[in-house]
Amino acid sequence: MNAPATSRMGSIDALRGLTVAAMLLVNNPGDWAHVYAPLLHADWHGFTPTDLIFPLFLFIAGVSLAFSVEPRAQDVSVRPVLRAALLKRALRILVAGLLLHVLAWWLFALPAYRPWGVLQRIALCVGGVGLLAIYLRPRAQWAVLTALLLGYAAILLAADTLEPWRNPVSRLDTALFAPYLYKYNPVTGLGHDPEGLLSTLGALATTLLGLIAGRWLRAGRLGPLAAMGAGCLVLGVVAACVPGGLPLNKNLWTPTYVLVTGGLSVAGLLLAHQLVDRQGWPALGRRFGVNAIAAYLGSSVMALVMIASGAWAACNGGLVGLMPAHPSLASLLCASGFVLFWWGVVAWLDHRRIYVKI
After folding, report:
1. How far apart are CA 178 and CA 193, in angstroms?
2. C-beta of residue 16 within 8 angstroms of C-beta of residue 65
3. Please, what is the angle between helix 200-218 and helix 53-68, to 10°?
4. Residue-wise over 258-290: b if at least 16 C-beta within 10 A, else e?
5. How many CB atoms lie within 10 A of CB 69?
6. InterPro entries this protein is in (predicted)?
7. For residues 42 and 49, what is the distance between their CA atoms, to the nearest angstrom?
8. By the 8 A CB rule, do 156 and 168 touch?
9. Does the model's pTM come out above 0.70?
10. What are the domain boundaries of the chain?
């Protein structure tokens, strides 16, 4: 029988940190016109390694809730305090995301302000699933997960098309929020936002799956956890490949995408647990992991300012000048240098025991 896990695991911080580092790498190429294919999202339907990064982060956020919130919520008397702390943190992340988009709107004179975004989605998922961790028993959490997946699948399967712009996710976001979207065409009246309202149902399911996986990891139920991960992966692939099934699609965060990325995330979690917690490997990425949101927010502000000032193009241009025959490699080196810079920042913060909790 597997022994129960400790209250805090280096593997969770390490996996979260590697995910943030991967976010910085794929979000900040030197030149978007020259990027290696695996470092790009699928154009629409499909799946690339980059499409795993954001759901893995949300999955790990759910795992963290299983360690930080759920055990303490067993004491009914502390639930109001837990709820207040959880919602305050979610609100801070939400406001940080809104302010980040204010900066982008101002620096680049965008035609419309965009309220949706990565940090906003993280805030909604952490807040929503955190409440489920506080108030619902495991069986009820499974029921909510099933309802999210089946309900969202029914909405998508009932649509006449899942193509860009005209799918139900984009149509609803356009009807409610246009022109305040990631993409909006005022001529056609069509828009889309990859972090919009309806697709948040899928993101919530990903985070809830992480909560369930974290509870099993905390209890040392590694065999059932591995079986759940394999089952999610197989079910997701089959449901995406059968005629009339739902394709893998990050923009829509389809239920099949939830299952496939959830299965892969379970595999990553188990591998990290085996290597770091059980075999004592170094917790590579931990320094990013303990300052995850701060590193993402700070790096995003820095990237926006560098792009607006022309410093980003100058850095990439210098690398291209050194290797004119390999612009994609220069672009990757520019992104890698950015990640290394921020690794230095979080390493310094960790050395000083400074942990910025947004």
Report:
1. 10
2. no
3. 50
4. bbbbbbbbbbbbbebbebbbeeeeebbbbbbbb
5. 23
6. HGSNAT_cat
7. 9
8. yes
9. yes
10. 46-293
Count Cβ atoms within 10 A of the Cβ of residue 310 and give its class: 0-12 exposed, 13-18 middle, 19 or more buried. exposed
Per-residue pLDDT of the chain (358 residues; tens, 9 = 90+): 343 444 568 999 999 999 999 999 999 999 999 999 999 999 999 999 999 999 999 999 999 999 999 999 999 999 999 999 999 999 999 999 999 999 999 999 999 999 999 999 999 999 999 999 999 999 999 999 999 999 999 999 999 999 999 999 999 999 999 999 999 999 999 999 999 999 999 999 999 999 999 999 999 999 999 999 999 999 999 999 999 999 999 999 999 999 999 999 999 999 999 999 999 999 999 999 999 999 999 999 999 999 999 999 999 999 999 999 999 999 999 999 999 999 999 999 999 999 998 8
